């Protein structure tokens, strides 16, 4: 009887089934390096939370999940501007009952012409037939002209790290670890971000102003000097803002670039989610 019970429990453990698979899409737009072309360089960061996938036993005390992600960018007329399918496999686990499993991610860097697009992602759990999830968001590209402008803000889980290498996760000489969905959970007491400033004036001292505001009125502010303004190329901005005791809620981060008279030269915003009571996985793992 005990042997039969162990066999039965083994069958249950062979497939640890999760809920409907989830997909997060984060987008950052940067100025096209070829300024003769009206368009932008778009970074698309795709995250699949591993806890939403089914883990199948591959060997004794060894479990792994797998997901297929299809990423599409559709033009306004519905025709595809880009499409790719990739298979993601999270790290092997010895225990699928762990409450926290690091998500998996990949990133694409694509040059697109100005216009209105739809970004669509679809994820399919390879070990759970019929289990699919989708995410969709509008994507509008409009060249800012030759004036001073700020790229989108890339929200980071940890400070940007100097990196001599070149891959999809590096930009401006830094390795960027994004925080999917702009989420900062319990234990993450500092907000980090990366941005690029274009056509910065060389004749005056510039500074930065950060403002984080919740829908309920909670707020945090900071200021920083902007040194080493680059001539003829993008100026890298690495910013941080203490989250401290800020409560759970949805926030808007506003970053202003100020001239010597404290007038706003360029501004950009990003959406942030603060979960002060909940622990979450660390940065997403990169597929090998």
In short, what is this structure?
The chain is mostly beta strands and 288 residues long. It has one helix at residues 2-14, and strands spanning 15-16, 24-31, 39-48, 55-59, 62-64, 67-75, 80-88, 104-113, 115-125, 132-141, 149-150, 154-156, 161-162, 170-171, 174-175, 183-185, 190-198, 206-214, 219-226, 235-242, 249-258, 264-275.
* Count of helical stretches: 1
Distance between the termini: 44 Å
Overall outline:
globular
Unreliable stretches covering 5 or more consecutive residues: 1-15
Main pleated sheet: 5 strands, mixed
Q: What is the strand arrangement across the widest sheet?
A: 16-22-21-18-19
Number of DSSP strand runs: 22
Rounded to an integer, what's the Rg over CA atoms? 22 Å
Mean pLDDT: 87
Q: Name the helix and strand elements from N-terminus to C-terminus, one letter apiece.
A: HEEEEEEEEEEEEEEEEEEEEEE
Describe it for me?
This protein is mainly beta. Helices cover 5% and strands 51% of the residues. The protein contains one helix and 22 strands. It has one helix at 2-14; strands at 15-16, 24-31, 39-48, 55-59, 62-64, 67-75, 80-88, 104-113, 115-125, 132-141, 149-150, 154-156, 161-162, 170-171, 174-175, 183-185, 190-198, 206-214, 219-226, 235-242, 249-258, 264-275. The strands form six sheets. The chain has a five-stranded mixed sheet, with no helix packed on it. A four-stranded antiparallel sheet has the order 7-6-9-10, with no helix packed on it. Strands 11, 12, 17 and 20 form a four-stranded antiparallel sheet that branches. Strand 2 and strand 3 (39-48) form a beta hairpin. The protein is globular, with a radius of gyration of 22 Å.
């Amino acid at each position: 009887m005990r042997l039969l019970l162990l066999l039965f429990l083994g069958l249950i453990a062979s497939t640890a089934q999760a809920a409907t698979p989830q997909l997060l899409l984060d987008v950052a737009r940067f100025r096209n390096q070829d300024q003769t072309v009206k368009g932008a360089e778009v970074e698309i960061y795709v995250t699949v939370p591993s806890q939403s996938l089914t883990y199948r036993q591959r060997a004794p005390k060894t479990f792994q999940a797998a997901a297929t992600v299809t990423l599409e960018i559709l033009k306004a007329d519905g025709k595809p501007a880009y499409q790719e399918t990739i298979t993601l496999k999270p790290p092997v686990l010895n225990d699928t009952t762990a409450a926290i499993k690091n998500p998996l991610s990949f990133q694409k860097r694509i040059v697109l012409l100005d216009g209105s697009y739809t970004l669509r992602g679809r994820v399919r759990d390879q070990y759970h037939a019929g289990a699919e999830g989708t995410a969709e968001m509008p994507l509008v590209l409009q060249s800012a002209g030759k004036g001073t402008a700020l790229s989108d803000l890339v929200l980071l889980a940890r400070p940007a790290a100097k990196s001599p290498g070149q891959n999809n996760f590096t930009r401006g000489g830094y390795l960027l670890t994004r925080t999917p969905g702009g989420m900062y959970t319990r234990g993450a007491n500092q907000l980090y971000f990366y941005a690029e400033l274009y056509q910065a004036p060389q004749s005056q001292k510039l500074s930065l102003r950060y403002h984080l505001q919740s829908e309920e009125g909670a707020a945090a502010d900071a200021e920083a000097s902007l040194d080493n303004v680059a001539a003829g190329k993008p100026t890298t901005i690495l910013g941080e803002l203490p989250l401290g005791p800020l409560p759970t809620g949805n926030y808007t981060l506003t970053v202003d670039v100020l001239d010597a008279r404290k007038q706003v030269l360029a501004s950009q915003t990003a959406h942030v989610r603060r979960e002060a009571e909940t622990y979450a996985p660390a940065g997403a793992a990169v597929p090998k």
